[in-house]
């Protein structure tokens, strides 16, 4: 089932003033794909998810599930599955009853419901936890229960609101792989809200990047990384953050973005400076090179080059790896020459 | 924590406890024990000399129709007040917990009965209940119900008492329930909506179970308080020259019985025996409630 958001605007009344959380937002989520809604906090991504869920009603615009206009359909009737940030498991119900609850609301017959609960529990690998109460589970296990509860009614659309933010780093990595595995296995259309670009990059088929309620870029993760459409997209995606350089000789009046890994330490290059900082994390050595005018860039040093702190180095970069942006609009204008 | 206490530490501890123990012992524990002992005696009303020792007071209570009436009335009162007051306050608390204009104002308004003295409440209500120019009969007239002698007739006195008592308990109940409602995670309601639960199912599946500790607390407190009702009756009915617990003893409760036996008859043994019986009844009901609570109440 394709999901279409058409010119969605959501404004809230807050302390007498009108706050526009989502501004004339349009996007399409294709059937069976996993899309991330990515952006900094307050960008409107969670509001968009709430509107998809039917928990908020957009001030303007329409939402379609397939050909059906669901804009005015309440969450209770929309038949979607949702995983909340803090899981929102019913604390007084056992895991079994938690997963059963949506089926109970749908008045599914007991034997059939039991079968479905057991099936979904097997899918998320919590069969052995069904008798426990949520408080007796670890964060990762609660997460799985929340996913099971969202999936048990076999919804057409699965919404995940920052589902990994309450987990520790190691578990986060594991769980995001798990979410992807389940999503691919079930073949469900899924929308995943996150502020973590790495998470979005790793898990999704496509990323919808938002800022201040406005859509910035929609594209597959690698394309967003390789061809950011504006300064914001370039700066938000990637770690370490992209180097943004102003007033380079050949690019007057333009902003130039170059990712750390695209610089190479060489004998001659577009950027000269002194190595002012080095840190080795695992296999990578991150260096900071500061030019004569005080501008500094981050890049990686090859293990062979043996750069040391205080060395004077040249950095070269292939033209196709130079992103050029208009200084006033922030829009991409092309690559380096 | 298994360390042995030294004698010095023990003495120190008792010294710290001494002021509280002294006051509790003098004004609570000693009177309780003396009352219990007194319930097995009959003393002379002036000389206070013990005239009889035994179970005769309890035997008398078993056969005293007035005590039976007092028991019946007390049970009617508890059953009439506690559940209804909780249901009404639950309804109001859930409403007040919504994002409505002036919620803070209404919260204060509903709390007022709790901080108003029983005497003042009873005075206002005796005016409301007045058979000729009471506001209740006036409003009932609008919907075609003939005026009733609310506090003057034995058929209505208990109803009037129950109505007033429900009203005066709402404030406390609502505050406790509101506090309980605030602790419920709002995301659970969103989750329940996504799971397809309408208003009623959200109440049944989220609000009621998560509020059960507060409801249970109100049940226990309400039942204990209900069995001990006295002030409301005294203030509503007995303000005249000859204090009577309602027309034809229609609002005579156990504590009122104790009061009459003690104060009017100066039969201290009988009065304390009735008090002991009441204590046992309250104890049994509280134990039953705790037993039920273990099964029905969800604690975090």
Can you give a write-up of this model?
The complex is a heterodimer of chains A (337) and B (300). Helix content of chain A is 26%, strand content 34%. Chain A is an alpha+beta fold and 337 residues long. Chain A has two domains: 3-233, Rossmann fold; 242-335, Nucleic acid-binding proteins (OB fold (Dihydrolipoamide Acetyltransferase, E2P), Beta Barrel), CATH 2.40.50. Chain A has a six-stranded mixed β-sheet, with helices on both faces. Chain A has a five-stranded antiparallel β-sheet with strand order 13-17-14-15-16, with no helix packed on it. Chain A has a four-stranded antiparallel β-sheet with strand order 2-1-4-5, with helices on one face. In chain A, helix 3 packs across helix 4 (110-123) and helix 3 (95-105) packs parallel to helix 5 (139-151). Chain A is globular and about 75 Å long. In chain A, 40% of the residues are buried. The mean pLDDT of chain A is 90. Chain B is an all-alpha fold and 300 residues long. Chain B folds into two domains: 7-53; 58-296, MetI-like fold (Orthogonal Bundle). Chain B is 73% helix and 2% strand. Chain B has helices spanning 7-38, 56-63, 65-96, 103-115, 118-128, 135-142, 154-182, 186-194, 199-227, 231-237, 254-264, 268-296, and strands spanning 41-43, 50-53. In chain B, helix 5 (118-128) crosses helix 10 (231-237) and helix 11 packs antiparallel against helix 12. Chain B is globular, with a radius of gyration of 24 Å. Chain B starts with 6 loop residues before the first helix and ends with a helix. Chains A and B meet through helix 2 and helix 3 of A and helix 8 and helix 9 of B.
């Amino acid at each position: 089932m394709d999901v279409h958001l058409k010119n969605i605007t959501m404004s809230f009344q807050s302390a007498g003033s009108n706050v526009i959380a989502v501004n004339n937002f349009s996007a399409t989520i294709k059937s069976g794909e996993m899309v991330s809604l990515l952006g900094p906090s307050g960008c409107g991504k969670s509001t968009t998810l709430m509107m998809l869920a039917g928990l908020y009603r957009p001030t303007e615009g329409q939402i379609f599930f397939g050909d059906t206009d669901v804009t005015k359909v309440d969450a209770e009737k929309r038949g979607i599955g949702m995983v909340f940030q803090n899981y929102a498991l019913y604390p007084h119900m056992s895991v079994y009853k938690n997963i059963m609850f949506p089926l109970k609301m749908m008045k599914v017959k007991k034997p059939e419901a039991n079968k479905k609960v057991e099936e979904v529990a097997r899918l998320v690998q919590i069969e052995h936890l069904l008798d426990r109460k949520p408080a007796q589970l670890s964060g990762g296990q609660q997460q799985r229960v929340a996913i099971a509860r969202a999936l048990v009614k076999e919804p057409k659309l699965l919404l995940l609101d920052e589902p990994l933010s309450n987990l520790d780093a190691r578990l986060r990595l594991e769980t995001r792989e798990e979410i992807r595995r389940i999503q691919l296995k079930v073949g469900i259309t899924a929308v995943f809200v996150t502020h973590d670009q790495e998470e979005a990059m790793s898990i999704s088929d496509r990323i919808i990047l938002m800022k201040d309620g406005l859509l910035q870029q929609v594209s597959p993760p690698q394309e967003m990384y390789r061809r950011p459409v504006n300064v914001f997209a370039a700066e938000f995606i990637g770690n370490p953050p992209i180097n943004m350089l102003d007033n380079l000789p050949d690019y007057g009046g333009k902003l130039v973005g170059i990712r750390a890994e695209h610089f190479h330490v060489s004998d001659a290059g577009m950027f000269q400076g002194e190595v002012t900082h080095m840190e080795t994390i695992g296999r990578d050595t991150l260096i900071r090179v500061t030019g004569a005018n005080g501008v500094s860039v981050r890049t990686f040093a090859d293990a062979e080059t043996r750069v040391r702190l205080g060395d004077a180095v040249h950095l070269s970069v292939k033209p196709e790896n130079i992103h050029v942006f208009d200084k006033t609009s922030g829009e991409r204008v092309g690559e380096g020459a | 924590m298994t360390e042995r206490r030294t004698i010095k530490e023990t003495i120190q501890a008792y010294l710290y406890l001494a002021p509280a123990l002294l006051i509790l012992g003098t004004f609570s524990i000693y009177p309780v024990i003396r009352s219990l002992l007194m319930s097995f005696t009959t003393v002379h009303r002036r000389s206070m000399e013990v005239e009889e020792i035994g179970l005769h007071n309890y035997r008398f209570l078993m056969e005293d129709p007035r005590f039976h009436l007092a028991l019946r009335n007390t049970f009617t009162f508890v059953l009439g007040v506690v559940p209804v007051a909780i249901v009404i306050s639950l309804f109001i608390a859930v409403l007040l917990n919504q994002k409505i204009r002036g919620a803070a104002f209404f919260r204060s308004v509903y709390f007022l009965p709790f901080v108003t003295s029983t005497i003042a409440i009873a005075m206002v209500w005796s005016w409301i209940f007045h058979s000729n120019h009471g506001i209740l009969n006036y409003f009932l007239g609008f919907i075609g119900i003939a005026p009733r002698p609310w506090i003057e007739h034995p058929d209505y006195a208990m109803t009037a008492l129950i109505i007033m008592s429900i009203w005066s308990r709402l404030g406390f109940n609502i505050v406790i329930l509101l506090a309980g409602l605030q602790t419920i995670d709002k995301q659970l309601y969103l989750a329940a909506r996504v799971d397809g639960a309408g208003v009623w199912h959200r109440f049944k599946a989220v609000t009621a179970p998560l509020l059960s500790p507060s409801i249970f607390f109100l049940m226990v407190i309400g039942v204990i308080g209900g069995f001990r009702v006295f002030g409301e009756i005294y203030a509503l009915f007995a303000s005249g020259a000859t204090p009577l617990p309602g027309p034809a003893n229609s609002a005579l409760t156990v504590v009122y019985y104790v009061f009459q036996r003690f104060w009017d008859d100066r039969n201290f043994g009988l009065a304390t025996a009735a008090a002991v019986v009441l204590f046992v009844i309250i104890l049994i009901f509280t134990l039953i409630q705790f037993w039920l609570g273990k099964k029905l109440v969800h604690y975090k």
